[in-house]
Amino acid sequence: MASVTSLSDSVQQRLASALSATLPEAADADPLLRRSDRADFQANGILALAKRAKANPRELATQVVAGVESGDVIKDIEVSGPGFLNITVSDRAITANLAARYADDTGRLGVPQAANPGTTVIDYAQPNVAKEMHVGHLRSAVIGDSVVQLLEFAGENVVRRHHIGDWGTQFGMLIQYLDEHPHELDHKDAQVTGEEAMSNLDRLYKAARRLFDSDEEFKTRARRRVVDLQAGEPKTLAMWQKFVDESKIYFFSVFEKLDMEVRDPDIVGESGYNDMLAETCRLLEESGVAVRSEGALCVFFDDVKGPDGNPVPLIVQKSDGGYGYAATDLSAIRDRVFNLKANTLLYVVDARQALHFRMVFETARRAGWLNEDVKAQQLAFGTVLGKDGKPFKTREGETVRLVDLLDEAIERASAVVREKAQDLSEQEIAERGGQVGIGAVKYADLSTSAIRDYKFDLDQMVSLNGDTSVYLQYAYARIQSILRKAGEVRPVAHAELELAEAERALGLHVDAFAETVREAAAEYAPHKLAAYLYQLASHYTSFYDKCPVLKAETPHLVENRLFLCDVTARTLHQGMSLLGIRTPEKL
Predict the structure, then answer these.
(1) Which of 58, 369, 470, 578 is the most exposed place for a label (fewest CB within 10 A)?
(2) What are the angstrom distances between the C-alpha of 546 and each of 7, 292, 484, 502, 503?
């Protein structure tokens, strides 16, 4: 089905037509249409146009009103203040537009897809091999997954990349430690997989780190082991591969709990770019982008200085010949631009790495790998805080394990579902508890602008009141209950009916779904979609309180209100899906 023109676009078209007839030089002008509390829409761009044309704003606005085609879409339009236009759309237009969205059998609700999609590579969900995932890994995964859903829904070609930490000194350290302390990984440990295996590896890694930091001789042996790993020495490489394979089993189990799809071909860690590192350095040095400084290959920036006022370089290759993170990140850019043919590179990475990525992107621009046709952007995010406003830690001061946090969210949500459940079995309660708990964690993250820190408060997250996913999920489940109770009576749009105030508010908000998705995708801003969905659920609650559905006065009114219920439910379902959150049919 073709996309459905939203009411705001329809109004915009009529205003533009009237403007061009009144003021030909303003044919391409944007009347800056926005939603308003005083009317359905308000056009507030007349003032700027009048100033440009040296005309009286109110007189120009009056002339535009006289030229606007009304009737089918615009019910009323009036001049307000110094030259604003307050516009009210007709009830018929609201219902007809919603009916067109409802009739879209693709499930897209008439939302258009990009006519000329590009290719975006998005780097997100980047855990480390041989280390347990902790609360710090949550935001990259959740935000990245939602941006992927938004971009794909908008029609973009999306390539997912999970740049896991699977190379470097830590693996020489861990392999050497295990070689010297084989008794610490007994036969029983070797048989376990998933979370238990990762807990064992994490324990061994911490022991290896303590020895590395305190014993210079062990540090030397561990560094020699890194050289063996880089050279592909069979025994060392086999142990490394086992760590990677075990870690992936664990990663998949955590992402499955998070209700996220992470595919093995999309996991391209640091090791995936090893063969490109030397060439990346050669290209940078030959082009003059990077220079040798005290034996290291560096890129310098006039605006990046340390506390002493001296320039702080981006070190691409260390003086001992080893490669830093910059070499890997720059090689990844080359791969994504020239092999994957990306137009856009997105990095969902902690805001604390902003300087690193600014330097990497600038280096790639100087090298010609990024240009006007290929952009790179960090989608930086803030920190997860505890209720006390400090970085989220356990009582012992340790970083919170992600699986523990998710399990607690599911447990809390299951208690809420059990308390409210009327006809759910224990199996259904457990299933819904998982959907509600994981949804609560995701929504708390996504309903906040990514760059901001946010407090992790499970009590608030699983609340039935306020801006929570549980509130939205219960709104959806309530609608499904009404539709089931309707029995043989089906939802039918009746455009001839007048709409009550709560019906109009709900209908206008549903119609704004396409605009919201378009804006959220273009700005990589899931929080804008989350805000829209909360407002949608709030409008529905007001409608439900003020407009009887199954007990409406006439059969046509019952059908039309069922239609409003169903189109709202479909919009909630699709919108929540784009946030990676389930909408249970019963709660």
Answers:
(1) 58
(2) 24, 73, 20, 7, 9
Q: How far is CA 124 from CA 143, 145, 247, 268, 401, in A?
A: 8, 8, 17, 11, 19
Residue linked to tokens 């939802």:
491
Please state, in angstroms and rounded to a whole number, the distance separating the CA atoms of residues 146 and 183: 44
Q: Are 185 and 204 in contact (CB under 8 A)?
A: yes
pLDDT tens figures, 399-455? 889 999 999 999 999 999 999 887 888 999 999 999 999 999 999 999 999 999 988
Confidence of residue 210 (pLDDT cuts 50, 70, 90): very high
| Distance (Å, whole) CA 194 – CA 448 | 32
Sheet with 157-161, side-by-side order of all strands: 157-161, 119-123, 344-347, 375-378
Q: What is the pTM of this model?
A: 0.93
For 470-529, what is each residue's pLDDT tens digit? 999 999 999 999 999 999 999 999 999 999 999 999 999 999 999 999 999 999 999 999
Q: Give the 3-state DSSP-derived string for 493-558, with helices as H, strands as E and coil as C.
A: CCCCCCCCHHHHHHHHHHHCHHHHHHHHHHCCCHHHHHHHHHHHHHHHHHHHHHCCCCCCCCHHHH
Report residue 541 CA to chain centroid gap.
26
CB 237 within 8 A of CB 217: no
Handedness of CA 20, 25, 26, 27 (dihedral sign): positive
Site of tokens 């009529």: 14
- The rounded Cα 440 to chain-centroid distance in angstroms is 15
Whether the pLDDT of residue 9 is over 70: the answer is yes
Confidence at 31, pLDDT banded by 50, 70, 90: low
Taking a C-beta distance cutoff of 8 angstroms, is the pair 269, 166 a contact? yes
By residue count, the chain amounts to: 587
The Cα angle at residue 47 between residues 46 and 48, in degrees rounded to 5: 95
* Cα-based angle 434, 438, 440 (whole degrees, multiple of 5): 120
CATH tag, 7-89: 3.30.1360.70
Q: What is the DSSP string of 96-138?
A: HHHHHHHT-TTSSTTPPPPSS--EEEEE----BTTS--BGGGH
Query: In the Cβ-directed half-sphere of 101, how many Cα atoms lie within 13 Å?
Result: 31
Cα distance from N-terminal residue to C-terminal residue, the chain: 33
Largest CA distance in the chain: 89
Mean per-residue pLDDT, 303-314: 84
CA distance 96 to 5: 11
Mean per-residue pLDDT over the chain, rounded: 91
- Cα(574)–Cα(517) distance, integer angstroms: 10
Residue, of 73 and 398, whose pLDDT is higher: 73
User: Which residues in 381-461 belong to E strands, given as ranges?
Assistant: 384-385, 454-455
pLDDT value of position 1: 56
List the chain domain ranges. 7-89, 168-268
